[in-house]
Write a structure and sequence with these properties.
The protein is α+β, with helices and mostly antiparallel strands and 114 residues long. The chain contains three helices and five strands, in the order H-E-E-E-H-E-H-E. The structure holds guanosine-5'-monophosphate.
Length: 114
């Protein structure tokens, strides 16, 4: 898989506003936030799209969601609510081909999406 901007962020070659890190996962504020809280939660292992996940990735994907839950609580949006989004490929609006979970909150979010 070709290196993406997120590989460079994981390697520390590009700075980010980090909110969480462990040996498997990194989370940081989106550079172009779409809501008052917009955090990206990514695995350190590069997986291009959600369609590339394999059964062995089950626990990793579960951890992404639990890290999002933790960050939502820490940033004070758990009670008001939030949205978790994985964009997949062109029609899903995916621009960076390294899977990432968007955590969005801090305002009322529209539904359905455009
Ligand atoms: P996608 O459209 O692929 O689901 O979302 C990619 C997200 O990555 C976008 O919301 C975009 O603003 C964010 N992004 C792209 N480049 C950078 C960067 O260099 N730093 C940070 N923090 N976010 C980025």
């Amino acid at each position: 898989m070709p290196a993406t901007i997120f590989s460079k962020i994981i390697a520390g070659e590009i700075p980010c506003k980090k909110v969480y890190e462990d040996n498997q996962i990194l989370a940081f504020h989106d550079i172009k936030p779409q809501a008052p809280v917009h955090v990206l939660i990514i695995p350190k292992v590069p997986i291009a799209t959600i369609d590339d996940l394999e059964p062995a990735d089950e626990a990793l994907v579960g951890r992404l969601v639990l890290v999002a839950q933790r960050i939502a609580r820490e940033l004070g949006i758990a009670e008001s609510g939030y949205r978790l989004v994985f964009n997949c490929r062109d029609h899903g609006g995916q621009e960076v081909h390294h899977i990432h979970l968007h955590l969005l909150g801090g305002r009322q979010l529209a539904w359905p999406p455009g």
